[in-house]
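Pasting as-is:
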Amino acid sequence: MQNPPKQSRSKLRIQTIIETAEKILLEEGIDNITIAHISELSGLKRTSTYKFFPTPKSLKSEMSNIYISECIRDFKSKSENIKTDNLSVIVLRCVGILYDYFDNNLKAQKLILSNEFSPSLETDKIKLPEMFNKDGVYRVFTQIIISIFSLNLKENDSIDEVGKIEAHRAGHAYLLDWVNQSS
């Protein structure tokens, strides 16, 4: 959010708007997230909603940022346990962490994986194993995995082991090529 509110009343409104949008996302689908519908269900005036989120896209972007931030926090805490130099094992564990996050978060699945809506990943907030800390490498690696999970979800109505295997294969191939070019 560009200008986060300072007043607790405004913070509560934003929380209500986001919770209402999440309810709509889960029960009615992403296309039904409109300012009018959110205002109607939340009991807030449209002007209050427009003040914080002028368009449904701005609200979806904020929700996406929330889920990506959660995913990054989850990844950071779980990736600290990756104690190997074996590239395949590192990729397998990274894919597993991302898979588990999306598998356990239906809202993130519906917003990020089920749609053409692509969130921006802020690399400066991400701390990863040494080999990933190169310009753009993690961003591309993560986008490959998210794209494969997205395709897997669209084809099978859920993410599954096939998507996990394909994400590992593609992520590993990308990183192997990057390592070989860097040598």
